Amino acid sequence: MARDLLGKVLVYDDPHGRRAARLVEVEAYHGPRDPASHAHRGPTPRAAVMFGAPGHAYVYLSHGVWPCMNVVAHLPGVPGAVLLRGAEPVVGLGGDPRRLAGPGLLARAFGLRTADTGADLVRSPLHLRDAPAVAARDVARGPRIGIAPSVTSERAWRLWIRGSPGVSRR
DNA sequence: CGAATGATCCGA
DNA sequence: CGGATCATTCGA
């Protein structure tokens, strides 16, 4: 579930060192029943990873410039993923949370490429570290960003940690 | 508000 | 194979 990702720490170890950030904003995409999901049109080469095992990365390129990272997460047989939209720096990412406020900024700060698609987020250099659950009163939710209102109006699938400076600004 | 910038998908 | 689309960002 998307809200379980809030508060978890995304870690990327590469030859340059470790980068880590605490996730403070995510959006859920629900697969074939969700027209906004890249999995909506079936297992195309790009979206195929979302039809596989949960806990893997799906990184796509937005507008030719911005890598955006998702965590494949779904119930058996129902493709879906969670877009990472905002985070707070923990290690190796500087001190300004606004540099991680937005899916493109976040994935770029980690140096992610579309080739990172498929990474096992439990065992690979790119992984998620568990963290205590965020209290319900600290979690806010609203409509997803950049999606036609007709699609998303009744689906408040964007979740964020109230008051965090790592939440994307609008 | 519009440009940047390229992978992806669909229709022909 | 060509054109439209895009889960975005930044600067004028």
Describe the protein in words.
- The chain is mostly beta strands.
- The chain has three helices and eight strands; from the N terminus they run αβββββαββαβ.
- Strands 1, 2, 3, 4, 5, 6, 7 and 8 form an eight-stranded antiparallel beta sheet that branches.
- A hairpin with a 3-residue loop joins strand 3 and strand 4 (66-72).
- The longest helix is centred in the middle third of the chain and has 7 residues, at 103-109.
- It binds a DNA duplex (12 and 12 nucleotides) through residues 27, 29, 36-38, 41, 44-46, 60-66, 68, 70, 83, 85, 102-105, 114, 144-147.
Bin the strand percentage. 25-35%
- Overall structural class, as computed from helix and strand content, comes to mainly beta
Question: Which ranges are low-confidence, i.e. pLDDT below 50, for 5 or more consecutive residues?
Answer: none
CATH H-tier superfamily: Methylpurine-DNA glycosylase (MPG)
Mean pLDDT: 93
Give me the Rg, rounded: 15 Å
